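Re: the 277-residue chain
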Amino acid sequence: MVLCAIHSCTTNPFWDDAATRELRIDGYVLAEGKETDIPVFVWADILNIHAKTDADGYFSLPVHQAQTPSGNINGPMQVYFYIHNYILDSATVFFTDGKFSNEQTDFSNDGELTESITLKKIVSVDSYCLSCRQGQPPSINLNYEDSLTFIFALDLHRNSRISAYKKVLSQQEYLPSGVLFRNVSDGFMYIYRLTNDRIIPLDYVQDENIIIRFDIDHDSLQVHSGPYEVIPFFLVNQNTIPLGLIDALGGESLFEIGEEYLQLPIDFKYDTLQISN
């Protein structure tokens, strides 16, 4: 009778236990060949909680809702680790009655990753301006140049499908399209696209090196003078990304060309150039 009374209560004195209040999962997640300071996005599915790694790759997720008056978590919770141009990875933490289970595979009984996770890179992207005057940063005066010639170099570390805007000329011939110019001083953004372009997915194989050349007529570049990041719009297709993770990041709009695309965690090296006109 005493046990039945305890389990039927709407409050539980053990929920005020300090260890329960401080329940958290943490650990280190690294990314192979990372070239920028972009953090890894961390998302736990059952509780829909998320965090980012710090400069050392450390993350910490407080777990505040494992025990509630309406019920306690039992079973596995998947914790996902995401950068857009890396293979999505995950680890599993098990709960018993709202607390960490004694038997774990990826985490300790205290909620710490037993081994650091290293994300595997799919593709690297580098860029440089061919028509610019060399310097720090490179510069171009559109009053004296007919066009801006820009190169994006893709280095494939694994087989992948990458989508980008292109204008179809024939079955095997495309003109590249879809570049964002973001003024780093005032935040102004211009999106360069060709008329009648569309998103085309293309398959690439490991160790392939792809050069994509943009020749942008200076009349098509509607920007004012200033320093600009030149950002290609590439989508690295992965079919295993949970919808909850996408929602936690900010939603489907992050995968569309525009300002919100810049919020997507991507480890691409963007070139900066000084434009005068």
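The longest strand covers residues 160-170.
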